[in-house]
Amino acid sequence: MMSRVPSLTAEALAKLKNFGTPATPTETNGWRSIFGSTCKSITSGGSKDSITIPEYVESRETLEYLGFTERAAKKLWQRIQKLEEPEMNPFMTMVRAYIRSFPDAIDEGDDWNAVMANIGIAERLQTAIMSPEYSEIRLSETAHYWLIDTMERDFEFLEEISDRISTELSSERLHLSAALFPLSSSSQTTNIPSMFSDEARKLGSPLSPASPEGPAEPKQVSGAQTKGKGKAHAVGSTNPTASMQESPPKKPQLETTPSPSSTKQAVEAETKEKRNESTTTFYKGGELMVLKKALKVRENGKAGSLAKVCTRPPTDLSGFIMRLYLAKQKEVANKYAGYAWRRNEGARGVGILHVKIPTRLLADTVNIYGKEWQDFVWCSRRQILPLPDNLKQIDSAPIICGPIWMVPSAKAEKPTTSKAEVVPYELQGNTVIQLGLLPTKAVGIQPECNVCLESLALN
User: Fold this and answer.
1) How far is CA 236 from its chain centroid?
2) pTM above 0.85?
3) Which class for 317: exposed (0-12), middle (13-18), buried (19 or more C-beta within 10 A)?
4) Confidence of residue 272 (pLDDT cuts 50, 70, 90)
5) Would the CA dihedral through 119, 124, 127, 133 be positive or negative?
6) What is the per-residue pLDDT across 307-366, written as a single tens digit (0 to 9) for each?
7) By the 8 A CB rule, do 235 and 451 touch?
8) Ranges of Basic and acidic residues compositional bias (predicted)?
9) Fewest Cβ atoms nearer than 10 Å: which of 77, 349, 361, 386?
10) Beta strand residue intervals within 55-194, DSSP E
11) 91 and 79 Cβ atoms separated by less than 8 Å
């Protein structure tokens, strides 16, 4: 029998009641609803004025909450309850195994709706996954992938909702959030041409330094400033002037302790150098709940890291090792954020992670394009070993930069798929560029990067 852990702890229930928004049982047993302004805070900017959640974290109701039909949820729950050693088969492990026990949809020609209906997926989740405006993103993975990814995010939210209530409804948080998460107002980026353009070939590297970005003045944005369609605000950031310098400025050679005026001049020179340094901004879109893990100091006080938003292999730029993937074009991040919004049905906030990197930290980037890119992506996606000698050095590089191949690994691994099908993904006629960093590299450069979150208000 699975453990019966309530979704809302006694402390969370008490906090909601004290704020005048108690979690009330619904007419249908096994569910609780929360109404009012607290919903926005708990869901990191979700669009709904109320949320209804299962009373217990692991339950038949939870399976329906994740997106199964009532019939499929009942069938799977009975199977879970019969486990003799449930601790050896965690709840979500059973959910993933159940989905993968059915045929998958991979290509555009596959009947995705029929595949999902066969698994027992409710129409609401089918409709969300099949959103026509995000078909390119959908076809970059399989039906199984998107179902599992969506359900994992829903389950993670359910597991953490009591902690979220304690954090978001804490009076201390209201005083600390502005101090912890300043925002750099500058959103200009260094221009990077398409890798396949003549300009890129002449430069020799798509990460060649351009003119530095202008100085960014920190500002604070309140939730009241984010009302309306298409508006956005930052919900987290590292200090934009923390440590983005090439070398510390030389202080005046004095035999005694520097005077206050000379110290002030040194600080001003240091600040100016940081502001004038050439940088390049990269992006990652998705649910704020996930992206917040990349911030060094999160709203709940826990430590975060860019390494916590890495992608599991196989991927375009790695066959066996996780890498942090960031897009050069913000439009790509917007699409991923929008698709996350559709799949969670507006229940939780989405946004874009901005990672502004000093260009000098990109000096060891290995840039690949043309046939070399095609060969490397082919070997990575199909996990071919040993790698040809000319690709081994690329594989071990801390940072790799190249185009995106927008197909699922399941299709890449098909015997009928040929290397000629490995072609760069284009958006509005431009080749989309991605940066792939090893976790150790991402962690190493983070203190010198400006990392912040942009919250998107979508309808």
Assistant:
1) 14
2) no
3) buried
4) low
5) negative
6) 999 999 999 999 999 999 999 999 999 999 999 999 999 999 999 999 999 999 999 999
7) no
8) 267-277
9) 386
10) 183-184
11) no
